[in-house]
Write a structure and sequence with these properties.
nucleus; mainly alpha; Ribosome_biogenesis_Nop16; Nucleolar protein 16; about 50% helix; 9 helices
């Protein structure tokens, strides 16, 4: 079927169209997307970003909050301009306190491996021991991993689950003793 006429032609720029009026509605002040729930709950949409952050005791510009002093060639520090802005009153200190508490909590260990990878590594160690070349030629090596790739997977398993690995090796040694 032939193409419709005019579809392949380049669109011409319309000089008479007022684009400012088109985008004016889009450019209206929108509330920023805030990821932290503590800040989101304390945010006042009627105030500016700088005012909101100042009320919470947070810095709008980190470069102004912690200035970096320039050093001279002799290694001496040059003093700042001497202008210190008046300290603004923090009306919502609970925001910073909650954020500090949340940051002080211990981080959860999120290192996990898939069950398939654990089974694969255990199968390879059980049948081939430390012989990585044999592991690469094994029929269960579906992804055709090289000996180095298999060794890397085994090392990752050792690092993520050291106790489980020790127990697994101990059980293998026990099986060998039972067989003999």
């Amino acid at each position: 079927m032939p193409k419709a006429k005019g579809k392949s032609r380049r669109q011409k720029y319309s000089y008479n169209l007022n684009r400012k009026r088109l985008y004016r509605s889009v450019r209206r002040r929108a509330a920023p997307r805030i990821a932290c729930s503590h800040i989101r709950h304390a945010w006042d949409p009627t105030k500016s970003v700088a005012q909101n952050l100042a009320e919470m005791g947070l810095a709008e510009d980190p470069n102004k909050a912690v200035p970096i002093h320039k050093k001279t060639l002799l290694g001496m520090k040059v003093g700042s301009d001497g202008q210190q802005q008046g300290k603004k009153m923090v009306r919502k200190p609970y925001v910073v306190n909650e954020m500090e508490y949340e940051a002080s909590l211990p981080e959860k260990k999120s290192n996990t491996l898939s069950r398939d990878l654990i089974d694969y590594v255990q199968y390879m160690i059980q049948n081939h021991g430390e012989n990585y070349k044999e592991m690469a030629r094994d029929e269960k090596n579906y992804y055709q991993d090289t000996p180095k790739q298999i060794k890397r997977k085994i090392n990752v398993y050792k690092n993520f689950y050291p106790e489980e690995y020790k127990d697994f090796i101990a059980s293998l040694k026990q099986e060998k003793m039972d067989v003999q």
